[in-house]
Design brief:
Elements (H helix, E strand, L loop, with lengths): L1 H10 L11 E11 L6 E10 L8 E7 H14 L15 H4 L2 H19 L8 H8 L2 H9 L9 H19 L11 H51 L2 H48 L1
Antiparallel strand pairs: 1-2, 2-3
Length: about 290
């Protein structure tokens, strides 16, 4: 009895560490909605957290690419000097925009994007992130459809902006422009490193694309050769026909293998390199 009481007391000890805070997000289940230029892909965004400011431990919402753009733009405007993760590019080509490979590649990139934000000590506290992860679709659409850019500014902000421009133009015309400040050597060194890194990564991306393209083209050629060999085998005698048929089967098997390797190159090599390029470009903008 004494041992049981001791065990019970120890389990309720105030010295027990509190559960660790967590915020995890998954982007899944892409679905095509609409047709033509009005078509788009929606994603299921699932949030699991023990943050007290969130509405429950789990929330599921539906989001589209433009919602992710809204989130990044809001964070980019509010968190000056903080690296905001980049978004994957938006394909303007119809036949690529809805291909299974493009949709899956983008889904993974969006998942990485939102989890980078959720794991950042400052960005994870953003009210805009909470809105993105919790608001219903109608509320999100209203927020997204609000005018942005110069038309979103208040009249007083616009007047100040025009005054600043006018002042700068006058200084240039009258020869009163401020002398250029001496650059910081450490800043220039870091700037040079970032530009060089971008150049190297861009070159690596080009090589990755060429390698991926070669695998795909070779796989497609072997597939066509395999089908042709099988057709030729059907026209020949038993022994020769069997040889052509086996050659065709081997070619098609090799074609499938090359196509799988091409997909692995895309997901494990080209896409990560592209992500690094986008990240460096985002750093340059900041």
């Amino acid at each position: 009895m004494e041992q049981q009481r001791s065990t019970s007391e120890s389990s309720q000890s105030p010295r027990s560490p509190p559960s660790q805070r967590y915020l995890s997000v998954s982007v899944s289940d892409p679905v095509k909605l609409g047709n033509g230029v009005q078509g788009y892909i929606s994603y299921r965004v699932i949030t699991k957290t023990n943050f007290p400011e969130y509405q429950g431990s789990e929330k599921i919402v539906i989001r589209r690419y433009s919602d992710f753009v809204w989130l990044r733009d809001r964070l980019f405007d509010k968190y000056k000097g903080i690296f905001v993760p980049p978004l994957p590019e938006k394909s303007a080509v119809e036949k690529f925009r809805f291909s299974a490979e493009f949709i899956e590649t983008r889904r993974q990139a969006l998942d990485v994007f939102v989890n980078r934000i959720a794991s950042h000590n400052e960005l994870q506290q953003s009210e805009d992130l909470r809105t993105f992860l919790q608001a219903d679709e109608e509320s999100m659409e209203r927020l997204r459809s609000q005018e942005t850019g110069i038309f979103k500014k208040k009249p007083a902000d616009l007047m100040q902006m025009f005054k600043d421009v006018q002042s700068k133009v006058s200084d240039v015309v009258l020869g009163k422009e401020k002398p250029l400040e001496e650059s910081n050597p450490e800043y220039e060194k870091l700037k040079h490193y970032v530009f060089e890194l971008e150049n190297h990564l861009t070159e690596a991306q080009k090589h990755a694309y060429r390698l991926l393209k070669r695998h795909r083209e070779l796989g497609q050629s072997l597939s066509g050769f395999g089908k042709a060999s099988k057709l030729l085998g059907a026209c020949e005698g038993q022994a020769l026909g069997k040889a052509f048929d086996e050659l065709g089967a081997k070619s098609e098997t090799l074609s499938i293998k090359l196509q799988k390797e091409a997909h692995q190159l895309l997901m494990n090599f080209e896409e990560p390199v592209k992500d690094y390029v986008r990240a460096v470009q985002s750093i340059k903008v900041r």
